[in-house]
Each structure stands twice: as C-alpha cells, then as structure tokens.
C-alpha cells in the first residue's frame, strides 16, 4: 500500500506559535502510532514567527525539541527555506519539491493567518485536500462578529452584544461618549470588550466602569479594526467537540474550571491554573441540548472536519448560551478537543486518522 504523505503545517505568525508546535508534536506522534505508520508518512513544514516557511530537517528538529527556531538559526539547522515574508507568493510555495509531494495537508496553526481562512485559501488554490474548514468556515469562525451574526440567524441563544469599529472608538471626542452611553444602556456592567479577530483571550478585558470601558475599547482598537462588546454573564464554561463533514457528530461535553476572574491568557497557558473536567457535571438534558447546538453552530458557519464549540451554562436559570466556535482548536495531548473524543471512544491516533480521511472525502467530487 502506498503511504499518503501528510504535510503537517505548524508554527505560524500568531501569538499561539508555541501551542501550534505542541499540537503538531502530538499529531506527529499519533501519525507514528502503530495503526497509522503503514498508512501515512509525515512531511513537516514549519512557519517561523517572521512568516518564513521551512521544509526538510529544520521542522523535524522543532518537532523533536518542541522549541521554536529563531530566524537566525534556520540556515545552520539544515532547513530548506521555501518562502520569505517579503515575497511569499504562491509560486514559491509550489516550487519546492517538498510541497509538490504532499497528498493531504494537516494545517495545525492557531489564530490569525492560521485558522482565519488565509492559509485555507492558499491550500484550496493548490488543489490538494486539507484537514479542517475551508475559507468560509475558517473566516466565519475567526471573526467574533460574523460568527455571532451567523449564530443569530440560526436561532442560537447568546449574550447581548454590540459590534464596533476602530473608527468609532478613535472618532472625534463628541462621538465616543455617545458610543459609551449606548453600550452602558444596552449591555450594562460587567461587560467584555474583545478584538473580533484574535484568540487566546488576547486584548480581552472585563470592564466594570466607564473609565475601564474607555480604556478597554482603546486597547482593543489597537489590536483590531473590528471590536465586539458583550454583556457579561455569570456562568460555567462548557465545551463540545464536533467531528465530521456533512453528517458531523458531537462528543461528550467537558467543563473548564479555574479560580481567576475569567479564562484569560495567563489562566489558559499557565500549568495548573485551569482544570478540564470530562464529562461536565451537568444534567443529561443540558448535555443533549449542548450537543445539538454544537452541530447547529458547525453548520451555521459552514465548518468542516473539526471544531470545538464553547458555551456558557447559566446554572441559576438552566440557560445555555453559545460563546464561540473554534475551527482549529488546541490539539496538544492534553487539549480539550482530543480529550473530549478520547472520552467519547475515539482515541487520539484514530481521531487524526479520521480527520485525514474526512479531508480526502471532502476534496473528492461527490
Ligand atoms: N460575555 C461573557 N460573559 C462572561 N465571561 C466571558 C464573556 N465573554 C468572554 N468571557 C470570558 O473570557 C474568556 C475568553 O473569551 P472568548 O472565549 O470570547 O475569547 P477567546 O478565548 O480569546 O477566543 P478563542 O477561544 O478563539 O481563543 C471566556 O472563556 C470567558 O472566561
Ligand atoms: Mg474562548
């Protein structure tokens, strides 16, 4: 049997570079598991923090060590430079022999330029199957405003929110106070101010007063042209994993617990600050509701392959509100997405195998 060559694309320019390396290491290990070695051969591609992409030995080294490769190190590391940030054109991507050898891509890049449809557009142009959502699903899943509009259309309950642009925040001094008045009147405090297109809680602030609101809007505007402000809820945070294309399945539901004020960057990425609890301690009927809503959300943004859907469960009222969908969720050995599937009877190596098969299935006509 000829092996399928899997282009494992990892690293990337976003703040989640290190998470991506860890996700790729876990996936590479799963592809080397006994049941997968006869089926797949790994061709790793590493995008450095400055946007340069390396093929050959350098990505193997990064997968082995788990340590990012700095810009100055690539020439001595045996890497084959296949693109640079100034002239990153499709031609350069296609010309190196390693890129042409790939049968199916497994992009495991988080955040901007990784799960927002940009790399998915490049892979679509290459006409080679790839794991995960296409351009539309990725872009919708990245932009919190577009995502919320799609959820609204699908009738999925969510917190009250207001979409704002950088132009409104940095407008003349007569307009800005009116904007803040309106936010206070419609959403109240506490509220959450978020750049629409980041991730990992970067640039997100919980605000409880007018001065905090003003500062948070100004800060969010420095990250993104598009900003969203949401009414804050007191709720437990539960997550559900989805796997499939046109007939996707939902996993058991998991819960995230932590002691900090909210699930901010430090809580997310400092060992021991947050715990995953699988299955979540919620009534069966709520679990079914969350699974059903996850599948609806998956369809609403046109996701494919995989997604993790995050919810707020307001215990006092038994209300379930959708928070967001992540089309390339964290995929390290301890991440919620693979853990949810492991608890649903799909171990990590089988999960990776199924994702690759789903990519091939989606690419083939009919
Ligand atoms: N409306 C809200 N009410 C209460 N808590 C919120 C609200 N919005 C966000 N939070 C808190 O902030 C955290 C981060 O917000 P959110 O999930 O929207 O962004 P993100 O995690 O940066 O996005 P991504 O998951 O794509 O990386 C949530 O997990 C939650 O703890
Ligand atoms: Mg989140």
Automatic annotation (TrEMBL):
Which residues take part in binding Mg(2+) 1?
A: 310, 324
What keyword terms does UniProt attach to this protein? ATP-binding, Cell shape, Cell wall biogenesis/degradation, Cytoplasm, Ligase, Magnesium, Manganese, Metal-binding, Nucleotide-binding, Peptidoglycan synthesis
**Binding sites annotated in the UniProt record for Mg(2+) 2:** 324, 326
Provide one Gene Ontology cellular component.
cytosol
Where in or outside the cell? Answer: Cytoplasm
Record domain ATP-grasp: where: 148-357
Annotated active site residues, numbered on this chain, are 16, 200, 335
Q: Name one GO biological process term.
A: peptidoglycan biosynthetic process
Entry EC number(s):
6.3.2.4
Pathway linked to the protein:
Cell wall biogenesis; peptidoglycan biosynthesis; Glycan biosynthesis
Q: InterPro entries annotated for this entry?
A: ATP-grasp, ATP_grasp_subdomain_1, D-Ala_lig_Van_CS, D_ala_D_ala, Dala_Dala_lig_C, Dala_Dala_lig_N, PreATP-grasp_dom_sf
Q: What does this protein do?
A: Cell wall formation.
Q: Which family does it belong to?
A: Belongs to the D-alanine--D-alanine ligase family.
Q: What is this protein called?
A: D-alanine--D-alanine ligase
